[in-house]
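Re-running the complex after MR caught last week's input typo. The corrected sequence lines follow. Everything else is unchanged.
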Amino acid sequence: MSTTVRTRFAPSPTGGLHLGGVRTALFSYLFAKKHGGQFVLRIEDTDQNRYVPGAEQYIIDCLEWCGISPDEGPHREGPYAPYRQSERKASYKDYALQLVENGFAYYAFDTPAELEAMREALRSEQNPSPQYDHHTRMQMRNSLSLPAHETQALLEAQMPYVIRIKMPANESIAFQDMIRGEIHNDSNLVDDKVLLKADGMPTYHLAVVVDDYLMKITHAFRGEEWLPSAPVHIKLWEYLGWKNEMPQWAHLPLILKPDGHGKLSKRDGDRLGFPVFAMDWLDPKTEEITKGFKELGFLPEAFINLLALLGWHSGEEQEVFNKAELIQHFSMERVHKGGAKFDYEKAKWFNHEWIKKLDSHDLCERVMQLWQSNGFTTAQPDYISKVVSLVKDRCTLLNDFYSQSIYLFESPASFDLEAIRPKWNDDKQAFFMAWMPILQTLNDWTLGSIETSFKDLATTLNCKAGELQLPLRIMLVGAKHGIGVFQIAEMIGKENTLQRIQKVLAQLAN
RNA sequence: GCCGCGUUGGUCAAUCGGUUAAGACGCCUCCCUUUCACGGAGGAAUGACGAGUUCGACUCUCGUACGUGGUACCA
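Corrected-run output:
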């Protein structure tokens, strides 16, 4: 018997991947890798009404970008293929029938209208959502309430049916959750969930149990929203005779909206101005684009780092972890029980830390790649490399590199003259007029000598060097920001420096 | 309504019966810098409430409140 850890991520490709989903995948991945096991991707794609084409590939792409690609899944060969629920359709029915045969499930012929009628009849203030359960099932049209020959007749007449689990009465269903410990449920309060739909497709409940069994999953991670249906799954494992192979469960806490309440959803991102998807998602049905962390300039390292710290904590002071460190430090005991509100400010801080932490060659590669894809490719790689290391401290997102360094590549489109004018005078004009020829003849074009010539001249002309620096900055950058002025002059070279000074001097004269 | 899960500053959170209740983000002040940042120093800000157990409770138990999830032929 194998003891290899096998975790799985079972997303539904109905709308893409939001933060909660990626985090489930991440924790599954970290746990599997920590124990030298495999991480399996299993696609939940049998809801034809909601299926979104392209979503599966999108999920695979997101996981790859995050650096947590599954070892097995629809994107690659694996011993338990196929990994798409839709392609496993045939086998689920057999298991459902096996359950019926053993008395753990039954055929139900009720039409949607009949179901609605039952709910309507039983609905009250005390019970706003009546269930199909051991209280009501004998009043419904199913193989439990009908005589055997009638059931047989309906079946032969091809009457549409679903298969429902027969939840036992008066039983305490308990299971062990890796995060929450022992959890109890009263079987009387669990309804007879549909296992096989009228179209022959399994519901999640049946499919996930069958697949986890067949794929030999040892540890199942999912969101806390699945906790209420866990007792159904527990009984299924038991009824199918696989109790000893049941995986360990881990129900991850929810990621909540940063402001109000509730689970974080796609709409919150639009509303509050931050991404909730890993990468840009173009919904083929609505043609709507949802912005992703990647496109907004997040590094995948930072993304998984911030996600890992949302609901998990190492217990030590370290907060910035690379993937290897996450794997090493990760432990289920330190996963939180309570939901965590997402904080975009902290998310950006993580990215900033990662920009500073990244090897400068690596960082430069990524910046160049980004610029290339945006059609901005001007300078030589070694110049860009120098620029990147000079400005990286002031960049929070990868996209900031453009705005933070554009003045090192081209002359500013406009100059903030209003920042200079109030204190501009003839002395300052005279200073720059005198400085230009000095620069012109400066042989050693380095930060140090440029600065020395600037300060020496200021002393000679009895000007305050400090007061001249802001005008010079405006001349070179166009605005009140950027790296050291003399550094800028050195970077852009003598010709550009003189040109920009002249340009502003001319504009000030008008 | 019922059931499940949860609750330490604005946010992420440490603590696993005895601490001045860490740290980080954000915010504020100062320093550095005659730009914007980075960096450095400091500050404000936390145990939902009520009982009980105990010499002692943020920590254990119970209750209440609040939050959140579920209550579908959706996942």
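None of the earlier attempt is carried over here. Chain A has a mean pLDDT of 94. The first helix of chain A runs from residue 19 to 34.
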